Amino acid sequence: MQKQGFNAFIRDRFGHLLDMFQENEEYGCHNFGDSDDIRSVGYTTNLTPEVIQLAAEAKVQLILTHHDAWGFMHGMKAECLRLLEAHGIAHFYIHYPLDFAEFGTCNSLLYELGANEIVQQTAFKEQAEIIGIGRLAEPVSFEQLIATVSRQLGEEVKAWRNNANPLVRTIGVLTGAGHSTDLMKQAKDAGCDVYMTGEKTVYSVQYAKFIGLNHIVGSHTFTEMFGVRSLACKLKEAFADVDIIELKEEHFE
């Protein structure tokens, strides 16, 4: 797989979503030469020095992530770029387009939790995020759902029961930093039994209680991991000779 073929793959899978968001802000690549023959791809949510070290040890040629190294973490992006060059590893990241793709972060998480129907596709409209909504095949207790989330994410999650209904079935989701009360209001207005995301604030916890909306919060990293995995699997389907490997980040949040 060379850069031209990879670029065509990304354009084919994301289409108009690439046009909605600016390259080098929401997606882009580092250290990816036109003649590079990529046969091993490592995937994870974040680009960090630790992830690059894992990739180097696994002899990965391309790291596929949801997030680029954050520029506001002073010095870390420069260090990541140095390490990528030093190890001869390419990097591609895709942020918002992956969040809003049909196979992206929100839908992939909903399917992991047992949803058999996507009631509302997550989207970006009029400069605002629209949550994804999924429905489980059968209602479950809130405690059962918490256990499923913890098991699938591989981490202990935070959860608040804010109403007396014994069963839940409809889940509103925005992975990552979906702690805005505007997003939670969308879930309430749509009749969701629970709202799930990857970060919390005192305001989001208070608001969920105020409106009587059950609330589950995992980590930013692992609520978004399934979308990156879905993309990596699609890459493997398109390029059978490419090996994919998960670069396993720590549960540190």
TrEMBL record:
Organism for this UniProt entry: Paenibacillus curdlanolyticus YK9
Domain of life, per lineage: Bacteria
Alphabetized UniProt keyword annotations: Metal-binding
Annotated signal peptide: none
Entry's family note: Belongs to the GTP cyclohydrolase I type 2/NIF3 family.
Residues annotated as binding a divalent metal cation: 66-67, 99, 220, 224
GO cellular component: cytoplasm
GO MF term list: metal ion binding
The protein's name: GTP cyclohydrolase 1 type 2 homolog
